[in-house]
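RECORD TYPE: protein structure
NAME: Prenyltransferase and squalene oxidase repeat-containing protein
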Amino acid sequence: MRATVGWIAGQQHADGALPWSRGEQLDPWDSVEAAMALDTGGAHDRAVAAYRWLQGRQRPDGSWASEYRDGHETAPAAESNHAGYLAVGAWHSWLTSGDEQLVTELWPAVRAGLDLVTRMQLPGGAIGWALRPDGTADDTALLTGSASLFQALRCGVALAGLLGEPQPDWELAAADLGTALRTRPDAFADRGRFSMDWYYPVLGGAVTGVAARDRLADGWDRFVVPGLGARCVADRPWVTGAETCELALALAAAGQPEAATEQVAAMQHLRHDDGSYWTGYVFADDARWPVERTTWTAAAVVLAADALSGATGASGLFTDPAALPAAGTADGRIAQERSTSADSLTGGAGTVLP
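PREDICTED:
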């Protein structure tokens, strides 16, 4: 894992940008995932640089472009999953590093992004996948993106509690979204051939317990290729490393760590000698495709390894849906710490950071 984290760090640009690989495109969601891997591997300064790069390019409405190259927007469409995912990265960084300064610094960007997400929520609870040119939400919702946003909203609620700035609108949005993910499949576009739509409601924490295990069992034979990993698309002979490791996270969340470990082991045929990982493998042709090694694939491996080994304070973020606070239970620890610091000058008492 040290080699893999080192490879991810080697793809980062001097200004902090963390693209798919050096000189290639960058999208905000995958950049956050790669930054989480850096924090997991102890490269906190590099993770901070990646988060600051993203913060500096957030638009006034809370969105980001869906793609950047060399610091410039190359695909300007604003997608809801990009707007929300910084909350997951910020909470993950807090769990791994306890960096109060970074959490406080990122909070305005997290808040703007999640405020946009709540504005993009559709009747029925699903989240529109993108903004139209007039600034309204597209009325199409994607299941994978909405499941990711369920986790992002809950991380945002946790951050809000940490800072003593409750966000009840996010709590309500998360509750409605969770209900939609569990009970309203017709609220989302039909993309059932993609494995992410199969496991992401479990990975994002909306579907838990027996329902999670049943959901994963129902799609197992359709998506899992024994000894190789998980297909990206059900009707293609193509397994991908990121989807396999995300499936492993979902399996761990469903209380099946042995099956999760088997999947991480199965995809190791994608590992390169330098610690990086190929994106995928077309087993019908015995060919790697696409011919690329990406930071987000490597990051998925690192996050799965952490979740299964319990190596960092963030290891339960993806595998323990109960680890995030329920609505209304956040405790404002950073805010209380600030009060404690002030009280110490006058003999007062307060709560300290863990």
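COMMENT: Residues 194-323 form one domain.
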